[in-house]
Every structure is written in structure tokens, then in C-alpha cells.
Amino acid sequence: MDSITHTLFGLTLYGAVDKRNLDKNHKRAYLVTTVGASLIPDIDVISRLWDTSGQYQMWHRGITHSIFLTPLWAVLFFLICAAIFKIKDKKLFLLGWLAVFIHDTSDLFNAWGTGYLEPFSNNRITFGTIPIIDFVFWIIMGIAFILSKKNKQKSPYYFKMAWAFMSLHLIIQSTQGFLIYNQYDEKYDQVALSADFVPWTYSVIVKQNDTVTIFQDNLFQEEKEQSVLFSNKDADLDYLFSQRPEAKTLYEWSPFVVLVDDGKVLGLYDPRFYRDGQSFLFEYIEK
Predict the structure, then answer these.
(1) Based on the number of CB atoms within 10 Å of its own CB, is 198 exposed (0-12), middle (13-18) or buried (19 or more)?
(2) Alpha-carbon separation of residue 82 from 21, 89, 92 (angstroms)
(3) What is the mean pLDDT of the chain?
(4) What is the pTM of this model?
């Protein structure tokens, strides 16, 4: 998910806590923990500063998003709150752990995926059933915020219900995506899913031999062919990788790629992010 959504997740988690009997320092500690822990896995963006080998695409959403690292992030925020706010409350650890777990797990459901099982597995796990910005989540959390302002006594209840409805949305959206994925999986060599911003609608990217086709589909309409792409199997990947290390990283990171060698450029791109005639994950060199 994007940083705004993760921040909103943290605020919604904070809103679900009954704070009527908490003093100001406790409230501040809870806020720092829920929001901070909801964002901390994305600290890996700073790896751009020292990436000289084109590995950023693999590092981003890598080890910092590992499920095995979640308790360590929770301990970090427990210690921060103990040092700054002089609060040593085990609930802070549990809230921090939950916030990081929500971040890492929610990122599994969009097309970018995460290194959820690192360091024991380098596989990038992605389901592609939720868009990176899901406006349904925003609407649900926004409604909870409005209702909480109208009735502060029931504020925690409204935010807990928001979590319930977001979970229901995730289940419905992912179940439909799973059913659509299976319809294509039996007919093509490789299949990838990428949820559109419109709920219950998906881009299905399939590869058969050297042809990649992108369909728009949902359970309530006929599939629509959007793009047909041709991958040049004779492209000199060894030379590309030697000149553009980022291309090798993208090749390893993506479920499958489209190879380009048209006499002008030599490169490859991830077709899951193909929009308006190009993919924004495209690594190439000019010939």
C-alpha cells in the first residue's frame, strides 16, 4: 500500500484504542507507536542512498517487510516510548507488533508484493488482489472518523467496525481475484494479477510463449483484451545486465517480463505496470 494508506491504518488503529482513562503521555506514546510502526517497514527507501549495484528494486519491501522482523520493530517502538515518554506499557509492544503486521501483510495483496519470508526465502510474494491505493479503505476509515467526531464516546467502536469492514472488503476482493486467476491459470504458461482502482476489477496479465496479453476482467462481465505485447526472446540479456544492473534485478523481481530489442533500445519491463503504451518499471539501454 502507499504511505498515505499506511498512515491512515495507524491512525485507525489508534482510534480503536479506548483512551478515556489515559493521560497525555500515554496517548502520545500510543499515537507514536501505532503510526510509527505502521510506517517503519518502508524505511528501506533510504537504501537508494547507497545502492550502487542496481539492487534497490529487490531491497525495497524486502527484509524490512519480513514477518520475522515484526517483533523487533515492536520492541524498537516500546523502547522509544520508554525513553521519550517514560511509558513502559506492554500494550505498546502489542500495538506496535500489530501495526507492523498489518503493514507487511497488507502489502502482500498488491502487485508489488514483499519479501514476507526473508531471510529464509527470497521469493517476492504477491497476490495482486488489492490496488496499491484502495479508495474503499479510505472511504471506510473516513466514515469512521466522521462518526467518531459526532459521538466521541463510541469512537473506539466505530474504528473497530472500520477494521471489520476493511477485512470484509479484503476477503471479498481477494476471493474474486483468486477465482479469476484460476480461470486463466489453466490456459496460459504464466499468469499475474493486478487489481484496478475500480473495486472487483482486475488486470490479468498472461504469457504464452513470447506473447503477453493483458485483459481487464471481473466476475460480472466478459473479459476485455487491452494490450498484446511481444517479447523478443533473442534479446541479449547478458549484455543488458552488464550495462544496466537494474535490469537484472527487475528480471529476478518480476513474475515475468517483456524483452525489448527494436534496434534503438535493449531492455525489459514488467507488464503488470503497463499503462498507456509503456510500463513505468522499464530498464533499458540505448543502442
Answers:
(1) exposed
(2) 19, 8, 10
(3) 92
(4) 0.91
